[in-house]
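Follow-up to my earlier ticket, as requested here are the two runs.
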Amino acid sequence: MKIHVNGVDLFYEKSGSGQPFILTHGNGENHEIFDKTIELLNKKFCVYAIDTRGHGNSSKVKTYNYQDFADDFAEFIKRLELQKPVFYGFSDGGIAGIILAYQHPELLGRLIISGANVTPQGVKKRWMFWFGLIYFFTRNPKIKMMLGQPNIADCQLQQIKTPTLILAGQKDIIRKKHTLNIASQIKNSKLKIIQGENHGSYIVHSDKLFEIIKDFVH
C-alpha cells in the first residue's frame, strides 16, 4: 500500500490486527528486513512496516534528512488516525523515532530504538572513517546524511516522556558510552545491551528481536 505524505509516497505493508505497531528500517534498507519479526508481531498487533522516503518502493528523493523522516512518520500516524502506536526504529529509523517522540509527544504509546545515535560522533571512529571513504567515492546522499546528522541535544532527549526501550548490540557500531548517555537522558527508559550481537544481527531477517521486545510491549 502507499500513502502520500509531505510530497512523497510512502510504501507500507499492513498485517495483523490489534494495537498499531510501526516498524522502520535503517539506511539503505527497506521493510523486508523485518520479515521474521512481522510474522511474530502480527499475531497480536496491527503491524505497519514502512519503506522510508528514498528507500524500497517509496518515492525517490535527492536529499536526505532525519527531520524529513520524522515528519513523514508523524503525518503517517495522523493520516491513518493510529491511536498511540508502538514505534520501533532501527538505526536511522531509531534516530527519526527519537525526533518524533520529542517533537510530537502526544502521538506515540511506546518507543523502541535499536542502534541509534544522536550525533555523528556517536558512531565508532573506524566506522565513520569507512563511511567517509564510501562517500568520497560514491557521493551517496544517504551516506552524506550520516556524516553530518543527526544533531540531537541532551535537552531534547529530556523532553521525551514516552516509555522508551533502548537497544544496542554488544558489538554495535554505536559507541556504548553514547548509548548509555541516551538512556540516561530519557527519563522513562529502559536499556538492553544484547550480548554477542552487532548492529543488526538480532534484527535483520531475525526472530530474535521479538523475544527481546515482547515483555516491553505486552
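Run two:
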Amino acid sequence: MRFANYEKVEIVRVPLLPRGFGTVRLLLNYITFSLLACALGPWKLRGLKFDVVLTYQLSPVTVGLPGALMAWIKNARMAMWVLDLWPDTLRAIGVVKSPLLLACVGKLVGFIYRRCDSIWAQSQSFIPKIQALSGPNIPIVYFPSWAEEFFKNVASRPAPEVPIKHGAFNLMFAGNVGEAQDFKCILSAAELLKAHLNIRWLIVGDGRMLSWVEAQIKSRGLDESVLLLGRHPVERMPEFFGHADAMLVTLADQEIFSMTIPGKLQSYLAAGMPIVAALNGEGAEVIRLARAGLTCPAGNPSALAKTVMIMSALSLSERHAMGKNGLQFSKREFDRIKIIDVAEKYLLGLCK
C-alpha cells in the first residue's frame, strides 16, 4: 500500500529492489533498502529535528543501519524493537550456511545493537541472546506484539472465497507460507489424516514456499483436504476466521523459533479462536498459560495429526471456552492500547 501520510504522520520512502523470488533477490532487497536509506535518508530528512529514532526490526536486521545513522546525524537517542533474531534465523532457515558469513552477520548485529540506547525484545527468551551481542550496558526490555483491533470482530458474514462443506472441521492457517512455518510438517500431518474426509486444512496467505506447497498438495493427493485460499488484505482476516473451527500456528523445530512468539498468535487470541499449535518454547507456553488451545512439539507430523483429531472431537462449547480464555488472556497481556502506552513511556524516558 502506497500512501504519503498515515494518521497525519508523513511517510518518507526510499527506492529499493523488490523481493521477487529466490535468495539472491531477497538479499538484494535487504541491501538496497539499507544502502539507499543511508544515502538518501539524511537528504530527505534534512532540516528536521528528532528526539528519538525507533527502528522496527523484523527482517532484516540491517534496517538498524539507517536508524543508527539518522540517530547519529540528528544527535537523537535510538530504540530498536527486535522481532527477529539474526544471525540465528538465517542459520535456522538455511538462507546462510557459511559459518564465516554467519559470524560476520553476528558482528554486524552487535555493531547495530551497541548503537542503541534501548532495545525492546518481542519475547522474554530473546533477551539473553540480544544481551550476548549488545554487551551488558544496553538496557533491554520485554516488549510483545499486539493484535490489531479489527481481529476482535470475527465476521458474521464469512468470506465468500471459502467453499462451504457441511459437517467439515476447518483448521485454518493464516499468514506467511515460508520455511520457518514448517509446511513439511503441516502437509505430512494432513497426509496422515487424508482418510478423515471431514477435516479440512485452510491456508490463507502467500510466501516463498507457496509453489512448493502447491506441488506437494498435488503429488500427495491432498486437493480435497488442503485448500489454498490466496493472499488477502489483513483487514479481511476476520471474514476468513469466520469459517474456522480452530486456528493453526506452527514453527520449525529450531532453537531460535522456540524463543519466538509468532505474530499470528496474538491475532488468534484476540479473535477468540481456539488454537492448535505445533510449537516449542515460549509460543507454546503462551497457549498453555492462556488455556486457549492444544499444543504439540514442533516438527512432529504424527503429534500434530493426533492433536488435530483431539481438537476436532471436542464439543463446540469446549472449543468456545478455549477461545474465550484466549480472548481474556489477550486483553490482559497483549492489549494494543496498554502496550502502546508502555512504548510511549519508554520513548519519553529516552528524551530526558
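The only thing I checked on run two: Residues 75 and 120 are 21 Å apart (CA to CA). Let me know what else you need.
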